[in-house]
Amino acid sequence: MNTLTAVPDAPTTHRGGRWWRLAPIEARLLLRRRTTLLGVLSGPLVMIFFAVVLRPAEPQGWGALAGLGAYIGMLISVYTTAATVFTLRRESGALSRLRTTELTGPGIVVGTGTPLVVVGVVQTLLIGAVYVALGAPLPENPLLLLAALVLGGAFCVAAGALTSTFSRSAESVQFTAAPLLLVGSVAVNVLSTGVDGVLRGILLLVPGTPVADLVGIAWTGPAVAEVAGVPSWLLGLVVTAVWTAVAVVGAAARWRWTARG
């Protein structure tokens, strides 16, 4: 007589499928660290100060200021914070310890960066609410605004991850992040003056700069409808997506889970 022995099913794991559980943990860690929290808050406070002082008289002025505020705020609050956080996690060994869990490498990076994307979107919306209270018109295209903020946040996190691979310590991030901060800030300031032609096309190719233009378009309409026959909003989305992909590929190629010896 044959007997059948029940064999229990093998346990299944879902690697990378629970990155969303890491995101709230990272958010709490982000709020606990005072220097990181100060970096997150400094961008919005600076742009609100400028709005209070300048108070543009024309709608287009508010749109340019909103775009400038979104980009500068994301550079300071999301990009530099992401670079600092990834560097700190690598220095402390947290990244290598997370590698022993069910999370995949991309899941760890996404879970760590997601709170920063949320911070970038929320802070820009709060800045916009203050602008409206100061006399700015409501955004003409909320969907484009949201798309620009989410894509811009993703770019800043990816660029921050790439920058962290060049940073030996959290203190060195201020130097490794400086090139994009300086070039991006200058490009966005020039772009906000309403330049046209070849110069505008060149400025929109600077990493992340189209985010400012997209926010301005979403707020009060495009100052310049087309660039070389391409709608400004479409060019902005494509260029930002391309730079995000470049940053992701670069970070993946140089990524280290342990601190440099």
TrEMBL record:
Keywords: Membrane, Transmembrane, Transmembrane helix. It comes from the Bacteria. InterPro entries: ABC-2_transporter (IPR052902), ABC2_TM (IPR013525). Pfam families: ABC2_membrane_3. It is a multi-pass membrane protein. It comes from Pseudonocardia parietis. This is ABC-2 type transport system permease protein. It is found in: Membrane.
